What we know:
The structure holds two protein chains of two kinds.
Chain A: H1 6-15, H2 21-33, H3 46-65, H4 67-71, H5 80-105, H6 111-119, H7 136-154, H8 163-191, H9 195-214, H10 226-231, H11 239-257, E1 267-269, E2 274-276, H12 282-292, H13 296-309, H14 311-333
Antiparallel strand pairs in A: 1-2
Helix pairs in contact in A: 3-5, 5-8, 7-8, 7-9, 7-11
Chain B: E1 10-16, E2 23-30, H1 34-45, E3 53-58, H2 70-78
Antiparallel strand pairs in B: 1-2, 1-3
Amino acid sequence: MYTQGLDSLGKDCLRDPAQDAGALERSFQARVDAEDKIEPKDWMPEAYRRTLVRQISQHAHSEIVGMLPEGNWITRAPSLLRKAILIAKVQDEGGHGAYLYSAAETLGVSRAELVDQLLEGKAKYSSIFNYPTPTWADVGAIGWLVDGAAIMNQIPLCRCSYGPYARAMVRICKEESFHQRQGYEIMLRLSRGTAAQRDMAQSALDRWWWPSLMMFGPSDAESKHGAQSMRWKIKRFSNDELRQKFVDFTVPQADFLGLKVPDPELRWDDAAQHYRFGAIDWNEFEQVLKGHGPCNRERLDARRRAHEEGRWVREAAAAWAAKQAARAAATEAA
Amino acid sequence: MSDERSDWPLYEIFIRAKSGLDHKHVGSLHATDARMAIEHARDLYTRRQEGVSIWAVRSADIVASDPADADSLFEPARDKVYRHPTFYDIPDEVKTL
């Protein structure tokens, strides 16, 4: 019963003369501090609601657009098994988008308006999906690195203060592990294969390494929403903390593949027990976010085309349902 | 871009993970009718054999309590500790009680 009666709730509560907005906010924050979950019909500050709508819808859009770079390889997967695996993975991504749109809808927005925002180019989605997938090894690198970075970001979200988002994330995280492992296994096969296959794996790593590090978002000093999201327990760890953890986990995995991480400054800091890595090109990140990445236009065009080409299916389904309902009503009346 | 400003009706989906267990709420989805709700629920919530049975309920048909009334709604149960077995002091010598 997610989206029912949400529109009026905040205002009704505010009208209660015994409680002013400040008191409501304090009791809200106290619940969050006590690790109590906030559910759809509970009172919440408007800014908390807006932050969640923005984050969850961007997350949903990312899952949907994320189907495109890999979908590019479904018809050319190197074996029937790889094709079946890739279809299953892409279907999962569509499912993740659907779970997340449902979670966003509990906050009083409709899926139709969120989808419109994406198609109109007004909504953001993860910058990573604006990079191309020129070889089969890119499919491996996406699973290993992009899904790996996503897992790093998403596991703490399973404990997010907003119940429906946290529950969607639990479901998603269970499925992501398959994505990451199938990707790493593709890289493993290629890295143990012919010289050409090894080179293909290396150049995919070269292409995806830095964009994957950018997936964690701007550095903590630059992050606009970080501190407030931490107070609200929407976020549990800072962008830089998660990025560091990802590097620490991933470099040994690259070593095992015998591939070289494309960062001349990368080194192990024994005192800190962390890998130190070179500076990220934030200018590139900004450019891709603004729509100037290698595939921004192509991705949105593909989404719009899919939406338009599916229109007749949606219309036919709605017409069928209306006809059936009218028939049922006529039978009942007779 | 799209002229379908209003979505298809929303359904809440409940899945029975295996026989012997209750149906449990897993999330929601949009569908034009009940049959599509079941088919979409199959694709969306049971891709890994998570269930043996699906219930789909129109969200609009669910009647829910209001969290703002929770205090007064649940208050009557609060002071009735005598409903719990631990309320009663029984000497240790008495067995199987």
